[in-house]
Design a protein that fits this description.
Blueprint lengths: L4 E7 L1 E2 L12 E2 L1 H13 L3 E2 L2 H9 L7 E8 L3 H14 L3 E5 L23 H9 L2 E5 L12 H19 L5 E3 L8 H11 L3 E3 L6 E2 L11 E2 L6 H7 L6
Parallel strand pairs: 1-5, 1-11, 2-3, 4-5, 5-6, 6-7, 8-9
Antiparallel strand pairs: 1-10
Amino acid sequence: MEFLKLTVLGFHKIGEPSDGIWHTWNYISVDQFAAYMTFLADGGFRVIDYCTFIDGLSRPQLFGPRDALLTFDDGYRSTLTEALPVLKRFNFPAIVFVPTAFVAGTNWFDHDIEPEEPICTWDELRELECNGVAVQSHGVNHWRFSQLTEAEVLAELTDSKSSIEAHLGSSVQVLAFPYGDPGEASASRRLLTLAGYRSAFLYAGGVTRLPIAEPFGLNRIAVGPDSDLREILLELRDPCS
């Protein structure tokens, strides 16, 4: 018997690089992204929204046997211009995690390893929210938490949360750790709770078994242009099932 699990997929950039030249693994073509969405739809997955995920933390009966959550890191404009039309075609919601210091700017935090791309403005993030893509925290400066003091981590958590809530009027209760780096796990858990978060995502790969036992260390599956979701999810079956 298959165990109940939440499959969380993590994306970055959809479409072609702005300069049309420099590709990295984080770029997925629109056609390939649509193929991934088709796989979910045809495979009987229920793609849940932010509110269902949050409510399911305390009421696990809200989760179904084949639930999936779609997430996008960094708030690239391509999430609006390229990913959103595909999401709307399938009527799929999602979550986008945004480092607030870079809103209306570019991904200067990793310009040495990734092509420079525009990040959504606040108005563009508001448009995403109006179309079923919840905006949540990716910190302020996209810093690795393992390189920060506890005071600096707390500032990243509280300042990003308050900024998003002030600009968009929405509740921020979920974080994606920049670079998937949570720092010291017990300290991060305590600081997240103190700052008013209810969940946080890593980039460790794998699915999350339901009901959720550790909401501040949830797995995500990083998806690139060559990912085979069928094979990945087959490998992640419960070995005891």
